[in-house]
Give the backbone structure.
Amino acid sequence: MKVRSQASMVFHLDKCIGCHTCSIACKNIWTDRPGAEYMWWNNVETKPGVGFPTQWEDQEKYHGGWELEDKPKNPELKLKLQNRLRTYTNLFSNPAMPTMDDYYEPWTYNYNDLFNSPLGPDQPTARPISRVDGQPIEIESGPNWDDDLGGSNIYAANDPLLQSMTPEEKQRLFSIEQLFYFYMPRICNHCLNAACGAACPSGAIYKRAEDGVVLINQDKCRGWRMCVSACPYKKTYYNWSTGKSEKCILCYPRLETGQAPACFHSCVGRIRYLGVLLYDADQIPDALKVPDEQLVERQREMILDPHDPEVIAAAKASGVPDGVITAAQNSPVYRYVKEWKLALPLHPEYRTLPMLFYVPPLLPVLNATQPSGTQRVETDLFSSLENARVPVRYMSRTLAAGNDDLVIKSYLKMIAVRLYKRHETVGDVTAEDAQAALAKANMTAEEAEAIYKLTSIPTYQERFVIPPYSREGDIEEVYDPQQRKAETGFGKRQGPQRGL
Amino acid sequence: MKNQNSSKHKMRTSLLWVALFAFFIFGCSSAPVEKAQLPSADEIANGNVENGLKLFMGNVHLENGGPPCMGCHSVADNGILGGGALGPNLTNITAEKSEAEILGLLSNTGSFISPVMLPIYTDHPLTTQEQSDLLAFMKSSAGQPETDKEWLVIVISILGTVGVAIAFGIIYRDRLRNVRRAMVRKAEKELL
């Protein structure tokens, strides 16, 4: 057993209000630079929708992620993008590259037009100008162009995940008063089997040993952009100004000083949880060579119980510091993912082992079979999953590689928690109904209470359990920690530069 | 054990460098130069037209390693694409220049010397036999039409460029282009 720790995340989609505060917090800190204007290390998508960049989930187009070889015996995992030979033949002409139009052309407005316009009968207007070449542009798309189902019969209708749904289900998604949509905030998944790192010809992408954050070394990056194609989540971006690729760094400078990443910290709905997961790195190859439906369960098996004395001993033997083990024991992510099995990884079928998990959204709570008009709380709200408006098939295609069972189990628990608390606080749900819902979800009242507490009234310290980073201890032997502390932030800064 | 291996390896590498260096110093040096001589009247009379053609076209190598005439010249109907166009067309050269002048040019000894051929053939002079064969070949071409194949070269170049472009288009036909714009256009067409 080779125990590693991974900074992991849970996003509770039921709580996301789609306000984009996370995106703005990230943009203001990290990507407000020339060449990075179009990057959204954190973005929020409306689902169903095409996302950012357009139709990123369609791997027949973008060739991201991994696939199993088409062999009956011992199939090996290979990059969907290309093998090593093709990497070199395509080095100067990568065929699976999203164009600027598939992201969007970043723009600003020529505000001087407002100040310099001569006196006249009309209000002056500020023309939109491109932030790439400074020329006036026609704005055709943006990073959240289809927000709240805007232009849904062009954008949402072309969601790659809708292709497998029946015409009735599709119909229901878009009919007035029956429609269903939710928000999907996305950052880098900091995968255990990152396709971006595997595809990089320069070996510039690595996973930090201490917390598994995936980073691009700006000195080693040569801008081949294979990571842009290989990442199935399209979460590495090419900076045309520095000639290097960039991605979410999980705000590691903040983590190292005990703060939650900016997008987590600023989240209005408090949907984000951060914690450490201990996992068995030896199991990675086998966990990826199973059929799609088993991927999530195998990933859960890899995640180890930090309370188990055997795991603790193995973690210590593998060099995991005590503070990290304690953090893993208090991790909210562990509870959501492994203990309660509520949270599921985004598109596990890409086989990158993403370590960002989503609690599927139950919203809207209204009944699907009920015609519009008055609805009664005790009978029509959260009554049963069969009547819910949530298309389970759509959620399972998003979060469980098509395994409906896992999504249903997660939903049953969430419905049971709601009914149980409704019975407790409002009282219009009978005790029998609440007990029946708990029994159906195969859970106890204590578990329902714990889920309620961590979901609805968690404190800052409960949401973000950041492990201590013992950097001083690690450098002690070669450098005086006091001196390093005093010197941090001083000295020459060398920005990323094009070329070798 | 490890040390032995590495020292052996080092020695082998240094030997390789010495061999490579020696090749650059000695391997590329020119053959000893002999001075070009003019052929005797007998040899001129015995010039072989067919052999002259082969020498001209480069089918048979010139003895001292000079480049074949066809690189720059054309004579009558030589080859599908004709000869080079850098030097003059030599189809009716015997009508314009005397034998002595031609031989003077070939051997770089005459009163009129080509400034282009001088440096090329000084180190790689033609033998007397070669000169007489080539002279015979040029004589035999007298009266034949001068063919101009330059248009063919241009046509082949254009077709080749188009062909390579098509080949690359086929190789990269699956590349990603314009996901969003294509999607929007298609959807708008269907909605109207």
Notes: Chain B touches chain A at residues 172, 174-181, 183-184, 187-188, 191 (CB under 8 Å). Residues 41-140 of chain B form a domain with the Cytochrome Bc1 Complex; Chain D, domain 2 fold (CATH 1.10.760.10). The CA atoms of residues 105 and 113 of chain B lie 5 Å apart.
